Amino acid sequence: MSPRIVTLPGDGIGPEILAPTVEILTDLVPGITFEEHVFGGASIDAHGTALTDEVTAACRDSDAVLLAAVGGPKWDTTDPNQPRPEQGLLGIRKELGLYANLRPVRPLPALYDASPLRRDIIEGTDLLVVRELTGGIYFGEKTRTATTASDLCAYSTEEIERIARVAFKSARTKVTSVDKANVLETSRLWREVVVRVHAAEFPDVPLEHLLVDNAAMQLVSNPTSFDVIVTENLFGDILSDEAAMLTGSIGMLPSASLGAEGTPGLFEPVHGSAPDIAGQGIANPLAMFLSAALLLRHGLGMEDAAAALESAVDGALGAGLRTRDLGGDAGTAEATAAVRAALG
User: How do residues 222-277 score in pLDDT, each as one tens digit?
Assistant: First the structure.
């Protein structure tokens, strides 16, 4: 059967960067089909909710889900009773059981000088952030009164075990487990469980532990010291965005969200919807293309096609392609043409 992909353009620049990505995937995968659905803020406008049951069902029945971006000031609110676009993201992750978020961070030599960090600091960086995605403070019980608010952070042994296994299986040289075990009880359990999984199942993979504040410092002072970073939901959200700046722009970072075997994965760029530049044709589509490469690799098992797309992005940048966020003036169409030319 031909692969069937659900596409979620979302908001802001989402539709602009998703359309050329669909074109590239159509070139790479004969017979691939796409089914588009509204999501996020666009779904709030159309249906009053960021994620409908229809979209959830379509995603569950697909081979993979390709998401562009959600959110924008139009839907910003502090009222807990009003829908927010981000609820769609949390909802689809929970509904599909996508507990493992993979965010590779590999600054390209052509972009070393685009990073705010010195070349000698970032040169050779090639790390993977493995973020637990369906537990922790984002999904815990929430309370709100006129004068107080609370968010419960909770983790089970099972949740920690399964994300630890993903990290150890992904490692080439070592795993760095990041927590706040000097303060938080959830982090103490996290560390104990990671140690136990390591000893029982992956004793040959070196393991180290870092407190999250130290990890944040090490990411910008010594990023080449990392191979795989595994951490809980909130810490992973923050650290992966910090790590994105090693590449020169958050517009360069893709991600994959994976669940149990046979579950369709969700593939999306890390950046937001950039409503301030929406509709101008200047959005950087490269993180979207690289997310499509992760879809090919992890969602469809097409390693050769994934590597070809990643090499095309590298080649286009090596030949001088620079979008505005990378210090150049190329727009979305120019970036797409450069990558398609590099694909041959």
Answer: 999 999 999 999 999 999 989 888 887 777 889 999 999 889 999 999 888 999 99
Q: Would you call 237 a catalytic residue per the annotation?
A: yes
Range of the domain at 122: 116-247
| Residue 180 falls in the annotated catalytic set | yes
Structure tokens at 56: 């959830």
Cα end-to-end distance, the chain, whole Å: 26
Task: Tell me which amino acid residue 77 is.
Answer: T
Mapped onto helix, strand or coil, the DSSP state of residue 14 is helix
* Pair (95, 133) in one structural domain: no
Judge whether 307 lies within some domain: yes
Average pLDDT, the chain: 95
- State which amino acid sits at residue 32: I
Average pLDDT over residues 115-126: 91
Catalytic residue among 180, 227, 314, 325: 180
State the catalytic residue, choosing from 11, 237, 314, 325. Answer: 237
Active-site pick, 53, 76, 213, 329: 213
Rounded percentage of the chain residues whose pLDDT exceeds 70: 100
Is 213 labeled as catalytic in the residue annotation? yes
241 catalytically annotated = yes
